[in-house]
Amino acid sequence: MYGGFWYYLKNAFNHKDNSLYKLLAINLLVFLVFLVLRVFLTISGEGALYQQLLSYFMMPAEVSRIITQPWSIFTYMFMHEGIFHILFNMLFLYWFGLLVQEYLGSRKLANLYILGGLAGAVLYVIMYNVAPYFIEQRDAALMLGASAGVYAIVVGAATLTPDTTFHLLLLGPVKIKYIAIFYVVIAFANSTGANAGGELAHLGGAAIGYLYITMLRKGTDLGTPVQAVGRFFENVFAGRPNVKVTYRKKNPPYKSEPLRETDTKTSKKEGTTQEEIDKILDKIADKGYDSLSKEEKRKLFEYSNK
């Protein structure tokens, strides 16, 4: 159906402000590529080559190896091997990601995912190089999966709207704060088990999810560097420079409602700061121009014509 889940997934890269479906699409595409490689290389007797190739994109615990493949701190969070591994990660990413995107917008959803993945990797490396229990396993330890980023989104959504209710099969209505608490407790309980590294990453992602929303409420967006990098690559791939609004003098791209005389006087008295304009531009990036109030449209129009 036009406008449904599959439409947005297939057209994930044709729409702006669509981080949720972009994240889903990237994870699925990477999974399919490595699935095909695994099948063909294994059948041809090159299973060892596949494992070696896979390891170059997984997160190592050994610091010296991280130095030789620094990209892995980013690539590992988009990789899965098992069907159920990617299935459950993508389901939780979709369910809780919809909530985060609805309340905070597309860019902040991406912030949460990336920051969660980075925090998970950092905690994983620290524990494997500090805790005696993990040091013995450090040299061979490798990690992959979106779980840390997904945990950040789950806990972030639960911190943002704790009383939102999901209707779960067999259990019925459950508030998402209880779902988040349950999964954090499970990750903590399994942090010395067979998948200890992954569980540590879950805890790192969960911690950053809570911290991100808490700091955002206080006016600090921890994801600002992530957004800056994202915008840089958007401009590179779009083939256009990063233009600031202060240079849009002759042909402002925004239409504004006619100003009343009283509005003009108020504007001249109060003025509009660059900080206000930056916030308005962030709002446009997250939710689109139509989400602006009349006052915000007026400020943007006047500032672009200074």
Automatic annotation (TrEMBL):
Residue segments, region Disordered: 248-274
The UniProt record lists the keyword Repressor: no
Record keywords, A-Z: Hydrolase, Membrane, Transmembrane, Transmembrane helix
Record InterPro entries: DUF6576, Peptidase_S54_rhomboid_dom, Rhomboid-like_sf, Rhomboid_protease_S54
Annotated compartments: Membrane
Predominant place of localization: membrane
Membrane-spanning ranges: 20-41, 82-100, 112-135, 141-161, 168-188, 194-213
Comp. bias regions, Basic and acidic residues: 257-274
Domain of life: Bacteria
GO CC annotations on file: membrane
Membrane topology: Multi-pass membrane protein
This protein's record includes keyword Transmembrane: yes
DUF6576 domain segment(s): 263-306
A molecular function (GO) term: serine-type endopeptidase activity
A Pfam family: DUF6576
Stretches assigned to the Peptidase S54 rhomboid domain: 69-217
Family recorded in the similarity comment: Belongs to the peptidase S54 family.
Record-given protein name: Putative membrane protein
Native organism: Echinicola vietnamensis (strain DSM 17526 / LMG 23754 / KMM 6221)
Lineage summary: Bacteria, Pseudomonadati, Bacteroidota, Cytophagia, Cytophagales
